[in-house]
Design a protein that fits this description.
By secondary structure, this protein is an alpha+beta fold. The chain contains three helices and seven strands. The N and C termini lie far apart (about 60 Å).
Length: about 160
């Protein structure tokens, strides 16, 4: 009998869509993501909250007139990965807490609290992708937050070279 290496295929479920960088586009991203997660029978909490925050940030801070943002969801094994790509690679996300009276700037703090891991990746200029991962079996989730950045005033701060 010969030795045969057998690979077990792990199904990858994915969803991708482009949205206008507007409040309406962010809302549509959240709604479509929620429906896709339901179709996959993936828990909505905390994933829907993370999608809402990342899409809102892309529409608010990553907005460039005439350039959409992209939402990508995929599940590999027991991990859901959420990616939101915009065309403001010059603006680096920051988790520094805003002042107590600020009306915004808490979105990435929520992502940090809800996601098991999250970070930022840079693609071909001018793209950046803010991503978050959520273990679908929350009882075995391991937290790996990204360190807060320095020098901002909350929300997204201007990136610097170097």
């Amino acid at each position: 009998m010969s030795d045969v290496n057998q690979e077990i295929a792990v199904p990858v479920r994915n969803f991708s869509a482009q949205f206008a960088p507007t409040p309406r586009g962010a809302r549509l991203a959240r709604l479509l993501a929620t429906e896709q997660l339901r179709a996959w029978d993936v828990p909505l909490d905390p994933a829907a909250h993370i999608v809402a925050e990342l899409a809102a940030n892309a529409a608010t801070h990553g907005r460039v007139p005439g350039r959409d943002f992209r939402l990508l969801l995929y599940v590999v094994g027991d991990t859901l990965r959420i990616e939101v790509t915009d065309t403001r690679g010059d603006r680096v996300p920051c988790t520094q807490p805003p002042s107590a009276d600020a009306e915004s700037g808490r979105g990435l703090l929520l992502v940090d609290a809800l996601a098991d891991k999250w970070g930022v990746g840079f693609g071909a200029p001018p793209r950046k992708t803010v991503w978050a991962e959520v273990r679908l079996d929350r009882s075995t989730a391991e937290r790996a937050p990204v360190e807060p950045c320095c020098g901002g005033t909350g929300g997204l701060s201007q990136g610097t070279n170097g």
